[in-house]
User: Which sequence fits this backbone?
């Protein structure tokens, strides 16, 4: 039987090989990578030429050199004879302290605003709405400027400072607070407080497990009282009951003693937390309203009070909705600490991308260092919050 | 438990209508809320009248710094005296009509966007999208059609805020769409590039990107190839926001049912034809509220350009209150209140528009 020379109608017509999808995809990708490589090479070679022309050596060797500047706010010991490397770490710690304080305060204010927003009290709910719409729609940088240049800087000098019961003083030099001086006994007392906290937490956890297993509630209030009050205070009393405070006192033109929160730091914390709290409040409101009203009605039918319904029924479920966008807001707060450089708070941008870059001319390295820092912080926050999310989304205790 | 065993109340139900009932239900539902209402009302009565006095009654509306210091309230005279600078920056006064004309063109395009029923709306918007940047460049920068060149370092104030914001939005959207498509691409090389681009730009603050644009970009370019400072900032803003937009657009792409892709392929469409005519129109429609929220963020972020030495609205206000002619605490506060009000109106208006859109777009989907 002669084989037909006609094309088989069941076979697709012959195509040129470059229109076949796998080959075309490979060609596009190779082309894309080649273009990218060429572009990167172009940028790098230009950078090398430009740096060589300006006489700047590339690399991170400059980090070992003497910095020669002071840092007004530092939680590490830093002097002008330290290296750029130490300046970097000082800036890292400053940024982290600001982020952590900001996140803590923003969470507290934000949850309060979010709960107020769903309050049955019309006045409270309206006020929370005004708070959210005001602070959410004004640029953060403007708010930082406002707190710093319009509120804190024009405050009276230390001689006429605003004071609270003669203990806390607020002036244009900052917020002066008493500083506890911990002797050995007080330190032991603090250690006992930590131990008591651990004991109370363990007992509370056991009670929770017992309730989950048997359905019977078990009181733990006395464990909290023992752990947080009786144990530390008895240790402290037994060791002599001494607590010395260093009080801020006006001497000459400024305060001596105590501890100070400088205006830059105060403005940065206030601005960041108030701004992010507006977004957190909105997230909390959305989370609470995202819980089916049937849950609330069922709890009401069982005779629970409004506070109990919120605490045991609505909030635990709402957390599952709240945490993912909350993570974004925490990351945003950590990134926004960079704006504090505009009000002279010594964080990564002002120390590394500002002073260090101006002094050394190492633009590429300093900006890369700053970006690497923020990248690490963002990833870290995402990891922590993902863990927390995993904790609240799994069903068992 | 006490609640549950209480006898059922037998007296007649209370009135359930009228303002008095509203007050009782919303302000005094129980004694705790009632106490809260009273305390908060008292605080408001203490706080609001002085604020009103400061803003309006005791404010100095005209005059000089001395009048403001004497008045004891807000210093609106400062805003009046610097109004031209706040709006146009250092743009030469005799050429300000060019800025006005550009703003008019912008407002007209936006008005078309807002109007519910306009013939060929899509084409008009697309045309405006393509033509507006050219018109704005020719009018604002000049050098063509016999218009005198106004270098970008003379631009400033509200006008610069608008330029940065609009350029950021217009540049970021197409880039963001490409990045979002690339992130979902089946080609690993393109996907990896897009994912790393998006994730890196989302993890770092805008300031570092602006620093990169203003300090590192000149190093990247060949010698003698100078790029305008404003243009570098715009590039930084656009790249940064493209990464944010890409994530919003990706959300829209993920919401498109698989059947749409399959139907388009079955109809013999290629990748681009399918994306442009079938997928993107639906995806972008669902994410319009998200895009508008990103626009609000972009407007707020424009203030950061002052850190690299451009004078946007906040930058010019900041410069004004630091000038020796107007140095006074009330001027400082008034300046920030004014700038804050300007940004607030823009951002609040846009976010309300986004909510309105969300409701409007939902009508077809509501079950």
Assistant:
């Amino acid at each position: 039987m002669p084989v037909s020379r006609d094309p088989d109608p069941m076979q697709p017509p012959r195509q040129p090989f470059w229109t076949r999808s796998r080959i075309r995809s490979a060609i596009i990708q190779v082309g894309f990578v080649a273009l990218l490589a060429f572009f990167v090479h172009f940028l790098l070679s230009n950078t090398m030429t430009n740096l060589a022309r300006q006489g700047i050596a590339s690399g991170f060797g400059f980090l070992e050199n003497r910095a020669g500047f002071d840092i007004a706010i530092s939680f590490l010991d830093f002097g002008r004879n330290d290296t750029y490397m130490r300046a970097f770490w000082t800036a890292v710690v400053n940024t982290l302290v600001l982020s952590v304080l900001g996140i803590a305060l923003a969470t507290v204010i934000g949850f309060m605003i979010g709960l107020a927003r769903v309050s049955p009290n019309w006045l409270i709910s309206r006020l929370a709405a005004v708070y959210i719409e005001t602070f959410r729609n004004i640029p953060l940088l403007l708010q930082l400027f406002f707190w710093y240049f319009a509120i804190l800087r024009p405050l009276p000098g230390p001689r006429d400072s605003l004071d609270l019961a003669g203990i806390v003083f607020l002036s244009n030099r900052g917020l002066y607070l008493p500083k506890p001086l911990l002797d050995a006994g007080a330190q032991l007392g603090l250690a006992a407080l930590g131990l008591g906290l651990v004991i109370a937490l363990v007992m509370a956890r056991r009670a929770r497990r017992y309730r989950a297993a048997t359905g019977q509630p078990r009181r733990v209030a006395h464990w909290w009282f023992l752990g947080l009050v009786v144990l530390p205070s008895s240790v402290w009393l037994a060791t002599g009951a001494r607590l010395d405070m260093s009080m801020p006192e006006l001497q000459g033109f400024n305060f001596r003693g105590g501890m100070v929160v400088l205006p830059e730091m105060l403005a940065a914390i206030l601005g960041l937390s108030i701004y992010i709290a507006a977004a957190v409040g909105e997230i909390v409101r959305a989370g609470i309203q995202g819980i089916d009203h049937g849950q609330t009605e069922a709890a009401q039918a069982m005779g629970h009070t409004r506070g109990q319904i919120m605490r045991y029924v609505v909030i635990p479920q709402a957390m599952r909705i709240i945490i993912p966008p909350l993570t974004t807001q925490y990351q945003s707060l950590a990134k926004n600490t960079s704006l504090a450089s505009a009000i002279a708070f010594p964080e990564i941008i002002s120390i590394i991308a500002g002073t260090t870059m101006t002094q050394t001319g190492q633009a590429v390295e300093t900006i890369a260092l700053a970006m690497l820092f923020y990248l690490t912080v963002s990833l870290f926050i995402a990891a922590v919050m993902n863990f927390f999310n995993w904790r609240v989304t799994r069903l068992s205790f | 438990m006490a609640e549950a065993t209480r006898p059922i109340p037998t007296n007649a139900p209370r009135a359930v209508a009228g303002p008095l009932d509203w007050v009782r239900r919303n302000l005094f539902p129980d004694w705790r809320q009632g106490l809260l209402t009273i305390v908060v009302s008292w605080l408001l009565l203490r706080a609001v009248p002085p604020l009103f006095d400061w803003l309006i009654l005791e404010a100095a509306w005209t005059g000089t710094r001395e009048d403001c210091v004497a008045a004891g309230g807000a210093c609106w005279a400062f805003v009046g005296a610097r109004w031209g600078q706040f709006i146009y920056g250092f743009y030469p006064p005799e050429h300000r009509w060019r800025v006005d004309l550009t703003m008019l063109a912008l407002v007209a395009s936006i008005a078309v966007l807002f109007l519910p029923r306009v013939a060929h709306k899509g084409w008009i918007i697309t045309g405006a999208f393509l033509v507006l940047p050219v018109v704005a460049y020719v009018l604002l920068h000049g050098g063509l059609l016999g218009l005198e060149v106004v270098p970008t370092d003379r631009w400033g104030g509200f006008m610069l805020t608008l330029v940065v914001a609009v350029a950021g939005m217009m540049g970021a959207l197409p880039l963001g769409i490409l990045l979002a498509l690339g992130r979902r691409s089946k080609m690993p090389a393109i996907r990896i590039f897009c994912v790393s681009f998006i994730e890196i730009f989302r993890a770092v603050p805008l300031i570092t990107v602006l620093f990169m644009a203003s300090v590192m970009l000149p190093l990247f370019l060949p010698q003698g190839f100078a790029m305008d400072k404003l243009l570098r900032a715009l590039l930084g803003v656009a790249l940064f926001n493209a990464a944010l937009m890409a994530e919003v657009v990706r959300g829209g792409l993920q919401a498109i049912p698989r059947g749409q892709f399959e139907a388009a392929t079955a109809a013999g469409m290629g990748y681009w034809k399918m994306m442009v005519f079938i997928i993107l129109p639906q995806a972008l429609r669902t994410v319009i509220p998200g895009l508008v929220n990103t626009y609000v963020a972009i407007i707020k972020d424009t203030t950061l350009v002052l850190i690299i030495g451009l004078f946007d609205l906040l930058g010019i206000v900041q410069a004004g209150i630091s000038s020796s002619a107007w140095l006074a605490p009330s001027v400082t506060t008034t300046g920030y209140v004014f700038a804050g009000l300007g940004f607030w109106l823009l951002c609040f208006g846009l976010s309300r528009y986004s909510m309105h859109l969300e409701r409007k777009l939902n009508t077809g989907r509501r079950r």
Notes: DSSP finds 16 helices and no strands in chain B. Residues 87-150 of chain B form one domain.
